[in-house]
Amino acid sequence: MRVVHYLNQFFGGLGGEEKADLPPQTRTGAVGPGRLLEQVLGNDSQVVTTIICGDNYAAENLPEVASAVTKAVRDAQADLLVAGPCFQAGRYGTSAGEVCAAVQAQLGVPAITAMAVENPGVDLYREQVYIVDSGPDVSRMQDVLATMARLGTKLANKEPLGRPSDEGYLPQGKLRSEFVEQTAAHRLAQMLLAKMKGQPFTSEVPIVPVEPVPVPPALTDLSKATVAIVTDGGLVPKGNPDQIPRSFAQVWGAYSFAQQESLSSQDYEVAHGGYDNRHVEQDPHRLVPVDVLREMVREGRIGKLHEEFLSTTGNGNPLENSRRMGREMAARLKEAGVDSVILTST
Question: Which is it for the CA torsion 260, 264, 269, 270, positive or negative?
Answer without folding.
Answer: positive
